[in-house]
Amino acid sequence: MRATRMQNGVLSGIELVCFDLFGTLIEITDRRRPFAPLRRNLSAEKVQTMRRLAMTSCMALEEIDEEIQGGATVAEIVAARADIAHEVASTRLRAGVAEMLSTLAVPYGICSNLSPDYVSALARFTELDPGFRIMSCDVGCMKPDPEIYELVIEAAGVPRANILFVGDTPDADIEGPRQSGMQSTDIELFLSFWR
C-alpha cells in the first residue's frame, strides 16, 4: 500500500515515462571496452568525432575509421566487433525493472544513445515493450542534443511537462530533459519507489 502511494506520488501529473536503455533498463554484465583500442592513438577531436559518428549514424566501424582517418588495423576492427557482440550477449535486465514495468501505471518509451551494433540488445528482452523507440543511430542526433528531446516530446504526444525522463547519466538523462521542459529523475531513485 505504501509503495503504491509513493508510485502515485512520483507519477503525479505524469502521462508518459521515457527511459534511457543501457545503464537504466538493461546492463552489460561483461564490459569489454571495444572502442578503447580504436581510439588509443587518436586526438581528442578525432575521438569525439568517432563517438558522434558511432552514435548518430549507421556507419560500420571500418567506415567510421576511414572517415576520421583513424588508422585502425583489420585485426583491431574485428576484435572490436567481437567485443561488441560479447557485450550485447552479456546484457541483462537491471534488477527491479521487470517488476516496475509490469506495474507502471502510464505508457513508456525509450530514448538512448546507441551505435547500431547495440540496438539488437533491446530485442533480447520481451519484458521491454515501449510505445516508441528513439535510438540516436536512427535519428542522427544524440543526448544531450536538444533535437533528440524534441523527438521524444513529439513521439510521446503529451505536453512536455507531463513527461518524466528516467536515466543514469546526469547531463543526458537529467539535465538535458529538464532544459527541454520535461521532468527527470535518476533510475536508482525511480526504482526505489517499487521496492
From TrEMBL:
It comes from Antarcticimicrobium sediminis. GO terms for molecular function: hydrolase activity. Keywords: Hydrolase. SUPFAM superfamilies: HAD-like. InterPro entries: HAD-like_sf, HAD-SF_hydro_IA, HAD_sf, S-2-haloacid_dehalogenase. This is HAD family hydrolase. It holds the Pfam family Hydrolase.
